[in-house]
Design goal:
Order of helices and strands of chain C: HHEEHHHHHHHHHHHHHHHHHHHHHHH
Chains: A mainly alpha (166), B mainly alpha (100), C mainly alpha (654)
Number of helices of chain A: 6
Largest sheet of chain A: none
Shape of chain C: globular
Oligomer: heterotrimer
Strand order of the largest sheet of chain C: 1-2
Largest interface: A-B, 87 and 73 residues
Order of helices and strands of chain A: HHHHHH
Radius of gyration of chain A: 20 Å
Helix content of chain C: over 70%
Number of helices of chain C: 25
Shape of chain A: globular
Distance between the termini of chain A: 65 Å
Distance between the termini of chain C: 106 Å
Largest sheet of chain C: 2 strands, antiparallel
Strand content of chain C: under 5%
Chain lengths: 166, 100, 654
């Protein structure tokens, strides 16, 4: 039982517990906080895999911006406890089995194809920001520009949506 | 050394949990959070592959996913605010005008 | 003008007349319709005479039948059926009879139908009939013959049901067509069998090939025998033999010229023509010939017995026709094809004469057809009386009228036949006695004795010239028609049989002098038989007659042995029941309508069920999305999850 493995299992348990908590909580604010826990755990996992830049971006953007946005909206809308309606019998009965089916299928695919993945790089090796940015601005420059366009569209959308009815 | 498979299976589990959350929760905002959870699970898979293959391409892709998720969250939450104001309820099951 | 090159003009002229009258005649006055109808038929007759004249020259030069292919009609693989017409001695006889007698009847009909509604329609149908009948006799292959065969059946239906507003007439037309159809079924099967055996349906080809075959033995049902029996089945339908004769008496619902032309002189003889034409096949199938002879003989006596007691003047003549057709088939059945055709020709003369005279009587009596309401007309309608008398003497078979020679030839041939010839002769002779009896009974009831009608209601008058002139011509033919074919026995030229010998290959009467004396004896017996009938009828029906009640044997005969009722109960009734309850209710309404409606209903049901997918509920939509995702996952990862794969890579390769 090496140290990386222990750290992995701890962080993994944290992430799963957070996800389960998201499902079981009844107030949306509690679900949001659970989601933050999941994200932090995932950031830790990224670090474990040597993706330092991605871990940082995860914390800053996801945890610091998106989740804050969620919490602000929950506060704005004064969201209360969830209503206990149940209009769809299909969802009630088929939900869990289907989810199990999806994750089971994917897991089975992963396990069965175990021989095709090369061994991971030795832990401790970090991917440098330099290599990332090199890739980003050479090979992936086209998607990069498109995402900037996408952000522009999102801004415009948000402004349009926020306008009052005149 | 943590085998790559472990990360991938964790990703699958998180994805499944995200599906459960999406199907069973009735608050619109919670639905959105479930989507974010699913996206995160996918990000984890990307990074795991990136590490196993030794190429940083997966991580670049994660960056893009995060950007898109941010944009989508922003606009989506704006729509949620408007919808909630119109229907006076945050219950997704009350938004059923397309019912046949 | 070389008519032979344009042989099609003979059938085409009546067709044109039919089309013109049918399409345009509705608004025309009777005179124009008459001229179109008579003109086309008369021209056709003239062309026929010219064609015969040319053919005689052709035959003298080439010694083979004239055959011309006009255009290809059906070509399927190796099979070819063309619009081919041929002319040989047999066809010459048929064509002249059809056009000649037909023309005379057309003239008669202009007088008879003068006051009827639908005048133009009548002549259109009549001309159409002439067209089809000419096609039938001129055809050079079975297929074209069958076209004519079916066509005359159609025209028979149209003409029988001419007074279509009368239910009995419409029913009679239907009955004729349907019973004919049953026979046609056999005919078609026979054609198929012939095609399968010989690969072609041309007369030339089939008969040439068949001549090389071994004849079937008596009792053996080889291909030829079965084919001949099937063809004969068609002939029984068309020529009203047992058991398919039931339509002919009902066919008397049609106007009398129709009865004369179609049901006496021409259409019903088509069956005899077919058997004669196929004599090559029949002579190779002795079993079939035997059947033909037996059926013909049985029909002759059967119909004669029914005719003894009928009270409708036309019904007597109808049963007489059935009986005489039986004689023709008897002749063919014993191998005397020439004699059969001879009787066909003479029969057409005197039967047409009898029917037209009967029509004249009906016309004179203002529509009355019941013998028991006539009587004493001899002095009032003299021309009709003498014509009818001529016809009756001819049919009874008194020398020197035409019927004597032809009937005598048949009975002589029957007597000499190997297969129960004596029995056939005996029955035929009995039928001859009956024939003479009922015909003279008819004459005496109609013309003799005292009148049994009310003179205030019926004004008896002689028919117009358009009707009497054809009667007189036919009467003359009934007298002299047999002379040019009288056998050598009577010092006659025996022209007829010699004429047909290239077709039938009949030899001179075998046996020389001994046969001659036999023939003389039989002829005397025949005349005596006719005399017996005449005297019996004279004793019973001349003078004052009283109609008795119908009991016992008389009742059975009067009701035609209840054959129609038997058919209705045994065949028609169950068939209708089956059609109504099985084919209509179960198959048509239940299955066909049910499946069509069922599909529509099913679609509705499916739609009604599927629409619940669109519930407006986001969560259920999400479930459907996930199901779709699972499907895609399965499709993509299926090779990975195969059990075989699991077995080979347990643990995987690292």
């Amino acid at each position: 039982m090496t140290a990386p493995l222990i750290i992995f299992f701890v962080l993994a348990a944290l992430a799963v517990l957070g996800a389960v908590s998201l499902i079981l909580q009844r107030h949306p604010i509690h679900s949001a906080l659970s989601l933050i826990v999941v994200m932090v755990a995932l950031a830790g996992l990224y670090l474990l895999m040597g993706a330092e830049f991605v871990a940082a971006v995860q914390i800053i953007v996801y945890g610091g911006a998106i989740m804050v946005l969620f919490i602000f909206v929950i506060m704005l809308l004064n969201a209360g406890l969830e209503e206990r309606t149940n209009f769809s019998r299909l969802a009630t009965y088929a939900g869990i089995p289907l989810a199990l089916a999806v994750s089971g299928l994917i897991a089975a695919a992963i396990v069965r194809s175990g021989g095709y993945l090369p061994a991971p790089a030795p832990s401790g090796a970090l991917t440098s920001t330099k290599t990332l940015s090199m890739l980003l601005f050479t090979e992936f420059v086209y998607p990069f520009e498109l995402t900037s366009f996408l952000i522009l569209v999102a801004i415009l959308g948000a402004i349009v949506l926020a306008q009052r009815e005149n | 050394m943590v085998p790559t498979n472990y990360y991938l299976i964790l990703s699958a589990i998180l994805f499944g949990l995200g599906i459960v959350a999406f199907v069973f929760k009735r608050n619109i905002i919670t639905l959105f959070m479930a989507i974010e959870l699913m996206l995160n699970a996918v990000n984890l898979a990307f990074v795991a592959f990136s590490q196993s293959l030794g190429k940083p391409d997966g991580e670049v892709f994660v960056l893009f996913v995060i950007v898109v998720a941010a944009a989508e969250a922003a606009v989506g939450l704006g729509i949620i605010i408007l919808t909630a104001r119109n229907r006076h309820s945050l219950n997704v099951e009350r938004v059923d005008l397309l019912k046949l | 003008m070389p008519i032979l090159e344009y042989l099609w003009i003979i059938p085409l002229l009546p067709l044109l007349g039919s089309a013109v009258n049918g399409l345009l005649g509705a608004k025309w006055p009777n005179k124009i319709v008459t001229s179109v109808a008579l003109g086309s038929t008369g021209l056709s007759f003239a062309c026929a005479i010219e064609a015969v004249r040319e053919f005689l020259g052709y035959f003298a030069a080439n010694h083979q039948p004239f055959r011309k292919e006009f255009f290809d009609w059906i070509i399927a693989g190796n099979f070819r059926a063309g619009f081919d017409l041929q002319l040989d001695q047999l066809t010459v006889v048929m064509v002249l009879v059809v056009t000649g007698v037909g023309f005379l009847i057309h003239i008669y009909a202009t007088g008879y139908m003068a006051h009827e509604g639908g005048y133009y329609r009548f002549f259109s149908y009549l001309n159409l009939f002439m067209f089809f009948m000419l096609i039938l006799v001129l055809a050079a292959n079975f297929v074209l013959l069958f076209v004519g065969w079916e066509g005359v059946g159609l025209c028979s239906y149209l003409l029988i049901g001419f007074y279509f507003l009368k239910k009995s007439a419409a029913d009679a037309g239907k009955k004729a067509f349907i019973v004919n159809r049953i026979g046609d079924f056999g005919f078609m099967l026979g054609m198929f069998l012939l095609f399968r055996a010989f690969g072609s349906l041309d007369f030339q080809t089939v008969f040439a090939k068949a001549a090389t075959w071994q004849p079937d033995a008596i009792g053996q049902f080889g291909t030829l025998t079965i084919a001949c029996l099937l063809l004969f089945m068609g002939a029984t339908g068309k020529s009203a033999q047992l058991p398919l004769y039931v339509w002919l008496p009902d066919a008397m619902e049609g106007p009398t010229p129709v009865s004369a032309l179609i049901h006496a002189a021409t259409m019903v003889t088509a069956g005899v023509y077919v058997v004669a034409r196929s004599h090559v096949l029949f002579t190779l199938a002795p079993m079939a010939m035997y059947v033909v002879a037996i059926v013909g003989c049985a029909t002759a006596i059967f119909a004669a017995t029914i005719g003894l007691v009928q009270s409708d003047i036309k019904k007597v003549l109808a049963y007489s026709t059935v009986s005489q057709l039986g004689y023709m088939f008897l002749a063919c059945g014993v191998g005397a094809f020439g004699a059969g055709i001879f009787h066909l020709m003479t029969h057409s003369f005197f039967k047409a004469l009898l029917f037209l005279s009967a029509g004249s009587v009906i016309h004179a009596m203002g529509g009355e057809q019941d013998l028991w309401h006539m009587g004493g007309l001899a002095s009032k309608i003299k021309v009709t009386f003498w014509c009818m008398l001529f016809g009756t003497i001819a049919i009874a078979g008194f020398i020197p009228f035409a019927g004597f020679f032809s009937k005598d030839a048949i009975l002589f041939a029957a007597y000499q036949s190997e297969n129960s010839g004596k029995a056939l002769y005996g029955v035929g002779l009995l039928a001859a006695i009956f024939t003479s009896f009922y015909m003279f009974r008819l004459v005496w009831l109609t013309f003799g004795g005292e009148k049994r009608y009310d003179e205030h209601h019926v004004h008896v008058h002689e028919s117009p010239g358009s009707m009497t002139v054809p009667l007189m011509i036919l009467a003359l033919l009934s007298l002299v028609g047999g002379w040019f074919a009288a056998p050598a026995l009577w010092g006659g030229p025996n022209y007829f049989v010699d004429f047909l010998s290239p077709v039938f290959g009949n030899a001179e009467v075998p046996g020389g002098k001994a046969a001659h004396s036999l023939e003389l004896t039989l002829s005397i017996v025949a005349v005596l038989a006719a005399g017996i009938g005449l005297i019996a009828a004279w004793r019973m029906y001349s003078g004052k007659v009283v109609r008795g009640t119908s009991t016992g044997l008389h009742k059975i005969l009067y009701n035609k042995y209840y054959v129609d009722e038997l058919y209705q109960a045994a065949i028609v009734g169950p068939l209708v029941w089956l059609s109504r309850n099985l084919f209509w209710k179960v198959v048509d309404v239940g299955m066909i309508d049910g499946s069509v409606n069922g599909i529509a209903h099913g679609t509705e049901e499916v739609g009604d069920t599927v629409r619940h997918v669109q519930s407006g509920n986001v969560r259920s939509y999400a479930v459907w999305v996930i199901i779709g995702a699972i499907v895609i996952l399965v499709i993509i990862f299926w090779p990975l999850w195969r059990p075989a794969f699991f077995v080979t890579t347990s643990g995987g390769v690292r």
